[in-house]
């Protein structure tokens, strides 16, 4: 799955850049890179033809699928990154209000590394027409605003936390 692999590489490079800009204090860089490379592993079982994914599951489930795959392989920390990286994270309220085909549990990033991967992922699309191009902060804000002002506030908080602005 070249798109997911190349996307993972872009996200990993961005995540490491963010960590270095923060001075790397308290950040497990090896784990951060692994988690960023693997965060979309679950797309292999989803149906998203524009990303060349021809599985049977809805795309929104790629995070929980990734968690299942990585837990089975013995990578529990990386598995949580998979599940918690969608948007800026999904709450039980999000899952219920949007009637998402997901387990009703909190899927928001908790650790610093989870937050950084989630943040870095926002900068890159898997869309082949936009592949490799980094999104602007304004594009990210616009995309997140579709899910409410709270999602944009989380992103703005990360910008400050990660010394990005």
Task: Characterise the protein shown here.
The protein is mainly alpha-helical. The chain has one domain (2-134). The protein has eight helices and three strands, in the order ααβββαααααα. The chain has helices at 2-21, 29-38, 62-72, 76-84, 92-97, 112-121, 137-145, 149-161; strands spanning 46-48, 53-54, 57-58. It has a three-stranded mixed beta sheet, with no helix packed on it. A hairpin with a 4-residue loop joins strand 1 and strand 2. The protein is globular, with a radius of gyration of 15 Å. The model has no long low-confidence stretch (mean pLDDT 93).
* Topology pattern, helix = H, strand = E: HHEEEHHHHHH
Using only CA atoms, what is the Rg?
Answer: 15 Å
Task: Kindly estimate the percentage of residues that lie in beta strands according to DSSP.
Answer: under 5%
Structural category is mainly alpha
How many E-type strands? 3
Provide mean pLDDT, rounded: 93
Q: Main sheet?
A: 3 strands, mixed
Strand order of the largest sheet: 2-1-3
Approximate helicity band: 40-55%
- Output the number of helix runs: 8
Distance between the termini: 34 Å
Question: What is the total number of structural domains?
Answer: 1
Low-confidence stretches: none
Which word captures the global form?
Answer: globular
